[in-house]
Amino acid sequence: MDFLNKLTKKAKETYEGASKKTGELAKEAKLRMKMSENKSEINDLYQEIGKKVYEKHTLSEEINIKIDLEEECTKIDVLSAEIETCLNQIRELKDKKQCPKCFNEIDLNAKFCNHCGAKQEVEVAREVEVIQQDSTLEQAQNDINKNIEQKEVNEEIKTDMKVSKDETQSNNDESQNN
After folding, report:
1. How many Å from the N-terminal Cα to the C-terminal Cα in the chain?
2. Which long-range contacts (CB under 8 A, 24 or more apart) does 94-97 make?
3. Of 48, 55, 37, which Cα lies nearest the Cα of 70?
4. Are 110 and 120 in contact (CB under 8 A)?
5. The pLDDT of residue 21
6. What is the dihedral of CA 153, 156, 158, 164, to 10 degrees?
7. Contact status, residue 113 vs residue 101, Cβ threshold 8 Å
8. Residues near 154 by beta carbon (within 8 Å), at least 6 away in sequence
9. Angle at Cα 120 formed by Cα 116 and Cα 121, nearest 5°?
10. Distance separating alpha carbons of residues 95 and 1, to the nearest angstrom
C-alpha cells in the first residue's frame, strides 16, 4: 500500500508540474501573440505617418509633427510600452532578466552577464501599484482621443475654408464672365 501511495504522490507531482509548465507556455504564447499584434499595429501606424507626410509633400504643405503626427506617435509609444511589458512578463516566466549594459537575456540570479561580463545589480523587490499603470494607459488613450477630436475639428475647418475658397472663386469667375 505504501508503494501505491508513493506512486500516486509522484504521479500527482508530475501532473502538477506538467500543468504548471503548460500554463506558463500558454501564457507565453498569448504574450507573444499580443506582441505580434502590437508590432503589426505599429507598422500600420508607420505607413499612416508616411502617407500623411507624402500627402503634405504633394500638396506643398508644411508638416507640423505636433499637430499632424502626434496621434500616431502617441499610439506607437503606448504599443511599444505594451510590447516591453510583455517581454518583461515572458522573462519573468522563464526566470530571466535583461542585462542593462548589452540588453541580452540572462539568468535572474546571475551576478555577471555571460555575454558582456557586466556585473549585475542585485534587484530589490518592489511593490508597484497596477492602478498607476492603468491610469497612465488611460491618460495616453485620453490624449489620443483629444488629438483625434482636434484633428477632426482641423479637418472640418480646412474643408470649410476650401468650400469658401471654391465659392469665392466661382463667384469671381461668374463676375468676370458677365
Report:
1. 113
2. 94/28, 97/123
3. 48
4. yes
5. 83
6. -140
7. yes
8. 67
9. 155
10. 39
Contacts of 139 (CB under 8 A, 6+ apart): none
For the entire predicted model, the pTM comes to: 0.56
Examine the pLDDT at 134 and tell me if it is beyond 60: no
3-state secondary structure the chain: CHHHHHHHHHHHHHHHHHHHHHHHHHHHHHHHHHHHHHHHHHHHHHHHHHHHHHHHHHCCCCCCHHHHHHHHHHHHHHHHHHHHHHHHHHHHHCCEEECCCCCCEEECCCCECCCCCCECCCCCCCCCCHHHHHHHHHHHHHHHHHHHHHHHHHHHHHHHHHHHHHHHHHHHHHHHHC
| Rounded Cα gap, residues 42 and 51, in angstroms | 14
Average pLDDT on 108-114 reads 89
Q: Are the C-beta atoms of residues 106 and 98 closer than 8 Å to each other?
A: yes
**Residues 6 or more apart from 55 whose CB is under 8 A from it?**
none
Beta bridge partners of 112: 119
* Residue that has been written with the C-alpha cell 555575454 in this structure: 115
